[in-house]
Specification:
The complex is a heterodimer of chains A (124) and B (106). Chain A is mainly beta and 124 residues long. Chain A is built from no helices and 11 strands. In chain A, strand 7 and strand 8 form a beta hairpin. In chain B, strand 5 and strand 6 form a beta hairpin. The chains are: A mainly beta (124), B mainly beta (106). Chains A and B meet through strand 5, strand 9 and strand 10 of A and strand 4, strand 5 and strand 9 of B.
Amino acid sequence: QVQLQESGPGLVKPSETLSLTCTVSGGSISSYYWSWIRQPPGKGLEWIGYIYYIGNTNYNPSLKGRVTISVDTSKNHFSLNLSSVTAADTAVYYCARVSGYYDSSGFTRGLDYWGQGTLVTVSS
Amino acid sequence: DIQLTQSPSFLSASVGDRVTITCRASQGISSYLAWYQQKPGKAPKLLIYAASTLQSGVPSRFSGSGSGTEFTLTISSLQPEDFATYYCQQLNSYLLFGQGTKVEIK
């Protein structure tokens, strides 16, 4: 059974960089796309971006310029960096696996395995 | 960018009711759409992908339909454990979500 676990600081100061890691266990990070999603308190889901295990990335245009997602296949984990954070970046951050594959126009399946989520608060 | 609009945003229903949630895309996305269920304090759970394919282990009372710009999630007979928030998500290059539909007990 694939499991995902987010880790990182729960408190980040404004203007600094938020850094989180998602460790995958029970399966290989290879051959899949992996994604970050966040949810501000009391609000809906926001897709942040995804990475393929060989390093190809795609990001939400609303966050472009501040987001970097990277992967380390030797450690079976992938990471999120979000720079210049403000209070609006306070949210529960989830990592997830994109199941299926990318065909000519999109992904054949959805996000099938998710981490439990980690709350990151941006405050001085 | 393609936007997804769910309706209604809030729905009050009783156990046993048939419930339908709609997701409209601002441009055609073929069948590249998924549906999720989220309960408070929990990660979302994949219910349906490719617009109408039931994820393994999901009860058959859930069904999805549609293609292009209009999609629906139907719960044929609402059960107590189905009271939750439901999200649609496009599965093309940008995996954007709809704003959610909260299903509450009437």
